[in-house]
Amino acid sequence: MKITISQAPNYNEETVTIGAWLANKRSSGKIAFLQLRDGTGFMQGVVAKSDVSEEAFQLAKSMPQESSMYITGKIVEDARSPFGYEMQVSNIELIHEAIDYPITPKEHGTEFLMDHRHLWLRSKRQHAIMKIRNEIIRATYQFFNDGGYVKIDPPILTGSSAEGTTELFHTQYFDEEAYLSQSGQLYMEAAAMAFGKVFSFGPTFRAEKSKTRRHLIEFWMIEPEMAFIDHEESLEIQEQYVSFIAQSVLDNCKLELNVLERDTSKLEKIKAPFARISYDDAVVLLQEKGFTDIKWGEDFGAPHETAIAEAYDKPVFIINYPAEIKAFYMKPDPERSDVVLCADLIAPEGYGEIIGGSQRIDDLSLMEERYQQHDLTGPAYQWYLELRQYGSVPHSGFGLGLERTVAWLSGVDHIRETIPFPRLLNRLYP
Ligand code: ATP
Ligand code: MG
Ligand code: MG
Ligand code: MG
Protein backbone atom coordinates (compact mmCIF):
# COMPACT_ATOMS: atom_id res chain seq x y z
CA MET A 1 0.00 0.00 0.00
CA LYS A 2 1.47 3.37 -1.03
CA ILE A 3 0.57 6.20 1.38
CA THR A 4 1.77 9.68 2.34
CA ILE A 5 3.28 10.64 5.68
CA SER A 6 0.16 12.64 6.54
CA GLN A 7 -1.91 9.46 6.17
CA ALA A 8 0.28 7.47 8.59
CA PRO A 9 -2.13 7.76 11.57
CA ASN A 10 -4.70 5.77 9.55
CA TYR A 11 -2.25 2.89 9.06
CA ASN A 12 -1.04 2.19 12.58
CA GLU A 13 0.58 -1.27 12.84
CA GLU A 14 0.28 -1.77 9.06
CA THR A 15 3.09 -2.22 6.56
CA VAL A 16 3.10 0.52 3.92
CA THR A 17 5.33 2.18 1.35
CA ILE A 18 6.07 5.93 1.24
CA GLY A 19 7.81 7.92 -1.49
CA ALA A 20 10.19 10.18 0.44
CA TRP A 21 13.31 12.28 0.52
CA LEU A 22 15.98 11.97 3.15
CA ALA A 23 15.91 15.17 5.22
CA ASN A 24 18.53 14.09 7.71
CA LYS A 25 19.98 10.98 9.27
CA ARG A 26 22.10 9.62 12.08
CA SER A 27 23.30 6.11 12.71
CA SER A 28 25.16 4.19 15.35
CA GLY A 29 26.38 0.63 14.94
CA LYS A 30 23.43 -1.59 14.15
CA ILE A 31 20.74 1.08 13.78
CA ALA A 32 20.07 4.08 11.53
CA PHE A 33 17.50 6.83 12.05
CA LEU A 34 16.25 8.44 8.84
CA GLN A 35 14.37 11.75 8.93
CA LEU A 36 11.97 11.39 6.02
CA ARG A 37 9.90 14.04 4.30
CA ASP A 38 7.42 13.71 1.47
CA GLY A 39 5.88 17.18 1.24
CA THR A 40 2.87 16.22 3.37
CA GLY A 41 4.97 15.95 6.51
CA PHE A 42 8.03 14.62 8.27
CA MET A 43 8.54 11.21 9.88
CA GLN A 44 11.34 9.14 11.32
CA GLY A 45 12.24 5.78 9.77
CA VAL A 46 14.10 3.39 12.06
CA VAL A 47 16.36 0.95 10.22
CA ALA A 48 17.64 -1.93 12.34
CA LYS A 49 20.43 -4.02 10.78
CA SER A 50 18.60 -7.20 11.80
CA ASP A 51 15.34 -6.15 10.04
CA VAL A 52 16.64 -5.38 6.53
CA SER A 53 18.94 -6.77 3.86
CA GLU A 54 22.62 -5.92 4.11
CA GLU A 55 22.20 -3.79 0.98
CA ALA A 56 19.33 -1.75 2.46
CA PHE A 57 21.23 -1.22 5.70
CA GLN A 58 24.31 0.05 3.86
CA LEU A 59 22.06 2.36 1.85
CA ALA A 60 20.49 3.73 5.02
CA LYS A 61 23.93 4.50 6.43
CA SER A 62 25.49 5.96 3.30
CA MET A 63 22.70 7.75 1.39
CA PRO A 64 23.40 11.51 1.15
CA GLN A 65 20.81 14.00 2.37
CA GLU A 66 17.97 14.64 -0.14
CA SER A 67 18.31 11.24 -1.81
CA SER A 68 14.88 9.97 -2.86
CA MET A 69 13.42 6.52 -2.23
CA TYR A 70 10.44 4.27 -1.80
CA ILE A 71 10.66 3.15 1.78
CA THR A 72 8.62 0.27 3.20
CA GLY A 73 7.91 -0.66 6.80
CA LYS A 74 5.46 -0.89 9.66
CA ILE A 75 3.86 2.30 11.01
CA VAL A 76 3.99 2.44 14.80
CA GLU A 77 2.85 5.04 17.28
CA ASP A 78 5.72 6.92 18.91
CA ALA A 79 4.89 9.39 21.63
CA ARG A 80 8.38 10.96 21.53
CA SER A 81 8.09 11.98 17.91
CA PRO A 82 6.52 15.43 17.33
CA PHE A 83 4.57 13.80 14.52
CA GLY A 84 3.24 10.94 16.64
CA TYR A 85 4.32 8.05 14.37
CA GLU A 86 7.45 6.44 13.02
CA MET A 87 8.23 3.64 10.57
CA GLN A 88 10.03 0.41 11.40
CA VAL A 89 11.72 0.02 8.09
CA SER A 90 11.83 -3.33 6.27
CA ASN A 91 13.05 -2.23 2.83
CA ILE A 92 14.49 0.76 0.96
CA GLU A 93 14.34 1.15 -2.79
CA LEU A 94 16.61 4.02 -3.87
CA ILE A 95 15.15 6.26 -6.61
CA HIS A 96 17.94 8.80 -6.86
CA GLU A 97 21.12 9.25 -4.92
CA ALA A 98 21.65 12.97 -4.36
CA ILE A 99 25.06 14.53 -4.67
CA ASP A 100 26.36 16.49 -1.70
CA TYR A 101 23.49 18.72 -0.56
CA PRO A 102 24.78 22.27 -0.17
CA ILE A 103 22.34 23.53 2.39
CA THR A 104 21.56 22.91 6.01
CA PRO A 105 19.67 26.01 7.16
CA LYS A 106 21.27 26.44 10.55
CA GLU A 107 24.81 26.86 9.25
CA HIS A 108 24.40 29.46 6.51
CA GLY A 109 23.84 33.18 6.29
CA THR A 110 20.73 34.71 4.78
CA GLU A 111 22.27 35.55 1.39
CA PHE A 112 23.41 31.97 0.89
CA LEU A 113 19.98 30.66 1.83
CA MET A 114 18.29 33.17 -0.48
CA ASP A 115 20.55 32.10 -3.36
CA HIS A 116 19.39 28.53 -2.68
CA ARG A 117 15.75 29.36 -2.08
CA HIS A 118 14.71 26.52 -4.44
CA LEU A 119 16.32 24.08 -1.98
CA TRP A 120 15.77 26.04 1.24
CA LEU A 121 12.01 25.54 0.72
CA ARG A 122 12.52 21.88 1.66
CA SER A 123 13.43 22.69 5.26
CA LYS A 124 11.06 22.02 8.12
CA ARG A 125 10.80 25.69 8.99
CA GLN A 126 10.01 26.83 5.44
CA HIS A 127 7.56 23.97 5.10
CA ALA A 128 5.75 25.16 8.24
CA ILE A 129 5.57 28.76 7.00
CA MET A 130 4.21 27.74 3.57
CA LYS A 131 1.59 25.52 5.20
CA ILE A 132 0.43 28.47 7.32
CA ARG A 133 0.32 30.62 4.17
CA ASN A 134 -1.79 27.94 2.53
CA GLU A 135 -4.14 27.81 5.52
CA ILE A 136 -4.66 31.59 5.43
CA ILE A 137 -5.56 31.35 1.73
CA ARG A 138 -7.91 28.43 2.39
CA ALA A 139 -9.60 30.24 5.29
CA THR A 140 -9.91 33.40 3.19
CA TYR A 141 -11.85 31.57 0.48
CA GLN A 142 -14.02 29.96 3.15
CA PHE A 143 -14.76 33.24 4.91
CA PHE A 144 -15.77 35.13 1.78
CA ASN A 145 -17.53 32.25 0.06
CA ASP A 146 -19.60 31.61 3.19
CA GLY A 147 -20.32 35.35 3.38
CA GLY A 148 -21.81 35.37 -0.12
CA TYR A 149 -18.93 37.17 -1.84
CA VAL A 150 -18.07 36.49 -5.48
CA LYS A 151 -14.39 36.06 -6.34
CA ILE A 152 -13.46 38.44 -9.14
CA ASP A 153 -10.05 38.62 -10.80
CA PRO A 154 -8.90 42.13 -11.68
CA PRO A 155 -6.35 42.57 -14.49
CA ILE A 156 -2.61 42.48 -13.82
CA LEU A 157 -1.72 44.63 -16.83
CA THR A 158 -3.39 47.98 -16.45
CA GLY A 159 -3.34 51.55 -17.67
CA SER A 160 -4.40 53.12 -14.37
CA SER A 161 -2.78 53.51 -10.99
CA ALA A 162 -4.74 53.26 -7.75
CA GLU A 163 -2.04 54.11 -5.23
CA GLY A 164 0.07 56.86 -6.82
CA THR A 165 2.71 56.71 -9.48
CA THR A 166 6.05 56.49 -7.68
CA GLU A 167 6.08 52.70 -7.17
CA LEU A 168 4.76 51.65 -10.58
CA PHE A 169 6.38 49.03 -12.77
CA HIS A 170 6.21 50.25 -16.34
CA THR A 171 5.89 47.89 -19.25
CA GLN A 172 5.23 48.09 -22.95
CA TYR A 173 1.73 47.13 -24.10
CA PHE A 174 2.19 47.06 -27.87
CA ASP A 175 2.21 50.78 -28.71
CA GLU A 176 0.97 51.91 -25.33
CA GLU A 177 2.54 52.22 -21.92
CA ALA A 178 1.09 49.95 -19.25
CA TYR A 179 1.78 49.13 -15.60
CA LEU A 180 1.77 46.01 -13.50
CA SER A 181 -1.10 46.20 -11.03
CA GLN A 182 -0.33 47.79 -7.64
CA SER A 183 -3.82 47.01 -6.41
CA GLY A 184 -6.95 45.74 -8.11
CA GLN A 185 -9.09 48.16 -6.21
CA LEU A 186 -10.52 50.40 -8.92
CA TYR A 187 -11.66 47.31 -10.82
CA MET A 188 -13.05 45.73 -7.67
CA GLU A 189 -15.30 48.78 -7.22
CA ALA A 190 -16.68 48.16 -10.71
CA ALA A 191 -17.14 44.52 -9.74
CA ALA A 192 -18.99 45.44 -6.52
CA MET A 193 -21.44 47.54 -8.55
CA ALA A 194 -22.10 44.43 -10.65
CA PHE A 195 -22.05 41.68 -7.99
CA GLY A 196 -22.66 43.44 -4.64
CA LYS A 197 -19.96 41.78 -2.52
CA VAL A 198 -16.73 40.69 -4.18
CA PHE A 199 -13.19 39.72 -3.27
CA SER A 200 -10.00 39.20 -5.19
CA PHE A 201 -6.80 37.37 -4.45
CA GLY A 202 -3.92 38.10 -6.73
CA PRO A 203 -0.37 39.34 -7.16
CA THR A 204 0.48 43.04 -6.96
CA PHE A 205 3.70 44.80 -7.87
CA ARG A 206 5.41 47.79 -6.34
CA ALA A 207 8.83 49.12 -7.12
CA GLU A 208 9.69 49.65 -3.44
CA LYS A 209 13.10 51.34 -3.48
CA SER A 210 13.95 50.93 0.17
CA LYS A 211 14.98 47.75 1.93
CA THR A 212 12.68 46.91 4.82
CA ARG A 213 11.63 43.67 6.43
CA ARG A 214 7.99 44.36 5.52
CA HIS A 215 8.13 45.19 1.81
CA LEU A 216 8.29 42.83 -1.14
CA ILE A 217 8.38 43.95 -4.75
CA GLU A 218 5.81 41.32 -5.69
CA PHE A 219 3.22 40.42 -3.07
CA TRP A 220 -0.28 38.97 -2.90
CA MET A 221 -3.29 40.90 -1.79
CA ILE A 222 -6.81 39.97 -0.76
CA GLU A 223 -9.15 42.80 -1.74
CA PRO A 224 -12.82 42.67 -0.74
CA GLU A 225 -15.17 45.41 -1.94
CA MET A 226 -18.75 45.77 -0.75
CA ALA A 227 -21.70 47.79 -2.12
CA PHE A 228 -24.09 49.35 0.42
CA ILE A 229 -21.48 48.97 3.19
CA ASP A 230 -20.19 52.02 5.04
CA HIS A 231 -16.85 52.55 6.78
CA GLU A 232 -18.06 51.36 10.18
CA GLU A 233 -19.56 48.18 8.74
CA SER A 234 -16.37 47.56 6.79
CA LEU A 235 -14.31 47.73 10.00
CA GLU A 236 -16.54 45.06 11.51
CA ILE A 237 -16.03 42.81 8.47
CA GLN A 238 -12.26 43.29 8.77
CA GLU A 239 -12.34 42.32 12.47
CA GLN A 240 -14.37 39.22 11.71
CA TYR A 241 -12.14 38.22 8.81
CA VAL A 242 -8.83 38.66 10.63
CA SER A 243 -10.16 36.85 13.71
CA PHE A 244 -11.34 34.02 11.49
CA ILE A 245 -8.01 33.46 9.77
CA ALA A 246 -6.13 33.63 13.09
CA GLN A 247 -8.47 31.02 14.57
CA SER A 248 -8.15 28.83 11.47
CA VAL A 249 -4.36 28.87 11.75
CA LEU A 250 -4.61 28.01 15.46
CA ASP A 251 -7.01 25.14 14.74
CA ASN A 252 -5.39 23.67 11.63
CA CYS A 253 -1.66 24.44 11.92
CA LYS A 254 -0.78 23.16 15.41
CA LEU A 255 2.25 21.22 14.18
CA GLU A 256 3.52 24.13 12.11
CA LEU A 257 3.14 26.67 14.93
CA ASN A 258 5.04 24.24 17.12
CA VAL A 259 7.90 23.89 14.60
CA LEU A 260 8.12 27.70 14.47
CA GLU A 261 7.95 27.95 18.27
CA ARG A 262 5.17 30.49 17.89
CA ASP A 263 3.73 31.76 21.15
CA THR A 264 0.12 30.73 20.50
CA SER A 265 -1.20 32.63 23.52
CA LYS A 266 -0.59 35.74 21.41
CA LEU A 267 -2.74 34.37 18.59
CA GLU A 268 -5.54 33.35 20.93
CA LYS A 269 -6.07 37.03 21.77
CA ILE A 270 -6.91 37.92 18.15
CA LYS A 271 -10.67 38.14 18.57
CA ALA A 272 -13.08 40.85 17.40
CA PRO A 273 -13.66 43.65 18.28
CA PHE A 274 -10.38 45.52 17.80
CA ALA A 275 -9.57 48.89 19.38
CA ARG A 276 -9.62 52.09 17.31
CA ILE A 277 -7.46 55.14 17.65
CA SER A 278 -7.87 58.25 15.54
CA TYR A 279 -4.95 59.57 13.51
CA ASP A 280 -5.19 62.78 15.58
CA ASP A 281 -4.78 60.88 18.85
CA ALA A 282 -2.03 58.71 17.36
CA VAL A 283 0.01 61.84 16.52
CA VAL A 284 -0.36 63.08 20.09
CA LEU A 285 0.56 59.66 21.45
CA LEU A 286 3.70 59.55 19.30
CA GLN A 287 4.75 63.04 20.35
CA GLU A 288 4.30 62.01 23.98
CA LYS A 289 6.46 58.96 23.31
CA GLY A 290 9.22 61.26 22.05
CA PHE A 291 8.80 61.01 18.27
CA THR A 292 9.69 64.59 17.48
CA ASP A 293 9.71 63.86 13.72
CA ILE A 294 5.93 63.44 13.46
CA LYS A 295 3.62 66.38 12.86
CA TRP A 296 -0.06 66.35 11.92
CA GLY A 297 -0.33 65.69 8.19
CA GLU A 298 2.58 63.27 7.90
CA ASP A 299 2.31 59.56 7.21
CA PHE A 300 3.49 57.03 9.75
CA GLY A 301 6.43 54.74 9.12
CA ALA A 302 7.19 51.35 10.62
CA PRO A 303 8.64 52.65 13.92
CA HIS A 304 5.56 54.83 14.45
CA GLU A 305 3.17 51.98 13.75
CA THR A 306 5.09 49.75 16.13
CA ALA A 307 5.01 52.39 18.87
CA ILE A 308 1.26 52.92 18.47
CA ALA A 309 0.53 49.19 18.49
CA GLU A 310 2.60 48.64 21.64
CA ALA A 311 -0.31 49.48 23.91
CA TYR A 312 -2.48 46.70 22.44
CA ASP A 313 -2.27 42.90 22.46
CA LYS A 314 -4.41 42.53 19.35
CA PRO A 315 -4.60 44.48 16.12
CA VAL A 316 -5.63 48.13 16.33
CA PHE A 317 -7.29 50.35 13.72
CA ILE A 318 -5.82 53.79 13.10
CA ILE A 319 -8.78 55.67 11.62
CA ASN A 320 -9.40 58.96 9.83
CA TYR A 321 -6.04 59.93 8.30
CA PRO A 322 -5.59 63.32 6.66
CA ALA A 323 -7.05 63.32 3.15
CA GLU A 324 -3.84 64.70 1.67
CA ILE A 325 -1.74 61.62 2.54
CA LYS A 326 -4.31 59.05 1.40
CA ALA A 327 -5.50 57.90 -2.02
CA PHE A 328 -7.74 60.12 -4.17
CA TYR A 329 -10.80 57.84 -3.98
CA MET A 330 -11.34 57.93 -0.20
CA LYS A 331 -14.51 59.54 1.11
CA PRO A 332 -14.06 62.58 3.36
CA ASP A 333 -15.50 62.43 6.85
CA PRO A 334 -18.86 64.28 6.56
CA GLU A 335 -18.08 66.09 9.85
CA ARG A 336 -14.67 67.36 8.74
CA SER A 337 -13.38 67.29 5.23
CA ASP A 338 -9.66 67.32 6.15
CA VAL A 339 -9.75 63.64 7.13
CA VAL A 340 -11.08 60.61 5.26
CA LEU A 341 -13.14 57.58 6.29
CA CYS A 342 -10.25 55.16 6.22
CA ALA A 343 -8.37 52.80 8.50
CA ASP A 344 -5.06 51.02 8.61
CA LEU A 345 -5.11 47.86 10.69
CA ILE A 346 -1.85 47.55 12.61
CA ALA A 347 -0.80 44.13 13.91
CA PRO A 348 0.65 43.75 17.40
CA GLU A 349 4.25 42.66 18.12
CA GLY A 350 5.73 45.09 15.59
CA TYR A 351 4.37 43.44 12.43
CA GLY A 352 2.97 46.74 11.12
CA GLU A 353 0.19 47.54 8.70
CA ILE A 354 -1.74 44.45 7.66
CA ILE A 355 -4.76 46.12 6.05
CA GLY A 356 -5.48 49.44 4.38
CA GLY A 357 -9.13 50.21 3.75
CA SER A 358 -11.69 52.98 3.30
CA GLN A 359 -15.15 54.03 2.31
CA ARG A 360 -14.99 55.30 -1.28
CA ILE A 361 -16.22 58.58 -2.69
CA ASP A 362 -19.66 57.96 -4.23
CA ASP A 363 -20.44 61.53 -5.27
CA LEU A 364 -19.75 62.33 -8.92
CA SER A 365 -18.89 66.02 -8.51
CA LEU A 366 -16.50 65.39 -5.64
CA MET A 367 -14.79 62.65 -7.67
CA GLU A 368 -14.48 65.08 -10.58
CA GLU A 369 -12.83 67.54 -8.23
CA ARG A 370 -10.33 64.84 -7.16
CA TYR A 371 -9.60 64.04 -10.80
CA GLN A 372 -8.65 67.68 -11.32
CA GLN A 373 -6.47 67.79 -8.20
CA HIS A 374 -4.66 64.57 -9.10
CA ASP A 375 -4.56 65.20 -12.82
CA LEU A 376 -6.32 61.95 -13.70
CA THR A 377 -7.31 62.14 -17.33
CA GLY A 378 -7.83 59.96 -20.37
CA PRO A 379 -9.43 56.58 -21.02
CA ALA A 380 -7.49 54.86 -18.21
CA TYR A 381 -9.59 56.78 -15.66
CA GLN A 382 -12.75 57.76 -17.51
CA TRP A 383 -14.42 54.38 -16.95
CA TYR A 384 -13.93 54.64 -13.15
CA LEU A 385 -15.70 58.01 -13.11
CA GLU A 386 -18.68 56.40 -14.83
CA LEU A 387 -19.20 54.17 -11.78
CA ARG A 388 -20.48 57.37 -10.12
CA GLN A 389 -22.91 58.11 -12.93
CA TYR A 390 -25.04 54.98 -12.90
CA GLY A 391 -26.60 54.13 -9.54
CA SER A 392 -23.75 55.26 -7.29
CA VAL A 393 -24.06 53.80 -3.77
CA PRO A 394 -22.11 53.97 -0.52
CA HIS A 395 -19.39 51.32 -0.74
CA SER A 396 -16.24 50.31 1.07
CA GLY A 397 -13.37 47.92 0.71
CA PHE A 398 -9.95 47.00 1.93
CA GLY A 399 -6.72 45.24 1.00
CA LEU A 400 -4.96 42.72 3.22
CA GLY A 401 -1.34 41.89 2.44
CA LEU A 402 -0.98 38.11 2.55
CA GLU A 403 2.74 38.00 3.29
CA ARG A 404 2.53 40.51 6.15
CA THR A 405 -0.22 38.38 7.64
CA VAL A 406 1.81 35.18 7.22
CA ALA A 407 4.80 36.84 8.92
CA TRP A 408 2.69 37.98 11.83
CA LEU A 409 0.73 34.77 12.47
CA SER A 410 3.86 32.62 11.98
CA GLY A 411 6.01 34.90 14.12
CA VAL A 412 8.56 35.30 11.32
CA ASP A 413 10.70 38.44 11.46
CA HIS A 414 11.34 39.05 7.78
CA ILE A 415 8.81 39.00 4.96
CA ARG A 416 11.27 37.22 2.61
CA GLU A 417 10.42 33.88 4.25
CA THR A 418 6.66 34.21 3.72
CA ILE A 419 6.48 33.77 -0.07
CA PRO A 420 7.99 30.85 -2.00
CA PHE A 421 10.23 32.95 -4.27
CA PRO A 422 10.56 36.48 -2.89
CA ARG A 423 11.21 39.36 -5.26
CA LEU A 424 13.27 41.92 -3.37
CA LEU A 425 15.31 44.97 -4.18
CA ASN A 426 18.39 43.45 -5.91
CA ARG A 427 16.98 39.95 -6.06
CA LEU A 428 15.25 38.40 -9.07
CA TYR A 429 16.69 34.88 -8.68
CA PRO A 430 15.98 32.06 -8.11
P1 ATP B 1 3.11 50.47 3.77
O1 ATP B 1 2.62 51.71 4.44
O2 ATP B 1 3.56 49.43 4.74
O3 ATP B 1 4.08 50.74 2.67
P2 ATP B 1 0.84 50.68 2.07
O4 ATP B 1 0.04 51.63 2.88
O5 ATP B 1 1.68 51.24 0.97
O6 ATP B 1 1.82 49.82 3.05
P3 ATP B 1 -1.55 49.61 0.89
O7 ATP B 1 -1.46 50.31 -0.41
O8 ATP B 1 -2.49 50.11 1.90
O9 ATP B 1 -0.07 49.50 1.52
O10 ATP B 1 -1.78 48.05 0.58
C1 ATP B 1 -2.59 47.19 1.38
C2 ATP B 1 -1.77 46.17 2.14
O11 ATP B 1 -0.84 45.51 1.30
C3 ATP B 1 -0.92 46.75 3.23
O12 ATP B 1 -1.67 46.99 4.40
C4 ATP B 1 0.11 45.66 3.45
O13 ATP B 1 -0.41 44.59 4.22
C5 ATP B 1 0.32 45.13 2.04
N1 ATP B 1 1.52 45.70 1.40
C6 ATP B 1 1.68 46.93 0.88
N2 ATP B 1 2.88 47.08 0.30
C7 ATP B 1 3.51 45.90 0.46
C8 ATP B 1 4.77 45.40 0.07
N3 ATP B 1 5.63 46.14 -0.63
N4 ATP B 1 5.10 44.11 0.38
C9 ATP B 1 4.24 43.34 1.05
N5 ATP B 1 3.01 43.74 1.45
C10 ATP B 1 2.65 45.00 1.16
MG1 MG C 1 3.69 51.53 0.83
MG1 MG D 1 0.70 52.52 4.75
MG1 MG E 1 -2.03 51.44 3.43
TrEMBL record:
<feature type="domain" description="Aminoacyl-transfer RNA synthetases class-II family profile">
    <location>
        <begin position="130"/>
        <end position="430"/>
    </location>
</feature>
<keyword id="KW-0067">ATP-binding</keyword>
<dbReference type="GO" id="GO:0004816">
    <property type="term" value="F:asparagine-tRNA ligase activity"/>
</dbReference>
<comment type="subunit">
    <text>Homodimer.</text>
</comment>
<dbReference type="InterPro" id="IPR004365">
    <property type="entry name" value="NA-bd_OB_tRNA"/>
</dbReference>
<keyword id="KW-0547">Nucleotide-binding</keyword>
<keyword id="KW-0030">Aminoacyl-tRNA synthetase</keyword>
<keyword id="KW-0963">Cytoplasm</keyword>
<keyword id="KW-0436">Ligase</keyword>
<dbReference type="Pfam" id="PF00152">
    <property type="entry name" value="tRNA-synt_2"/>
</dbReference>
<dbReference type="InterPro" id="IPR045864">
    <property type="entry name" value="aa-tRNA-synth_II/BPL/LPL"/>
</dbReference>
<protein>
    <recommendedName>
        <fullName>Asparagine--tRNA ligase</fullName>
        <ecNumber>6.1.1.22</ecNumber>
    </recommendedName>
</protein>
<dbReference type="InterPro" id="IPR002312">
    <property type="entry name" value="Asp/Asn-tRNA-synth_IIb"/>
</dbReference>
<dbReference type="InterPro" id="IPR006195">
    <property type="entry name" value="aa-tRNA-synth_II"/>
</dbReference>
<dbReference type="Pfam" id="PF01336">
    <property type="entry name" value="tRNA_anti-codon"/>
</dbReference>
<dbReference type="InterPro" id="IPR004522">
    <property type="entry name" value="Asn-tRNA-ligase"/>
</dbReference>
<dbReference type="InterPro" id="IPR004364">
    <property type="entry name" value="Aa-tRNA-synt_II"/>
</dbReference>
<keyword id="KW-0648">Protein biosynthesis</keyword>
<dbReference type="InterPro" id="IPR012340">
    <property type="entry name" value="NA-bd_OB-fold"/>
</dbReference>
<comment type="similarity">
    <text>Belongs to the class-II aminoacyl-tRNA synthetase family.</text>
</comment>
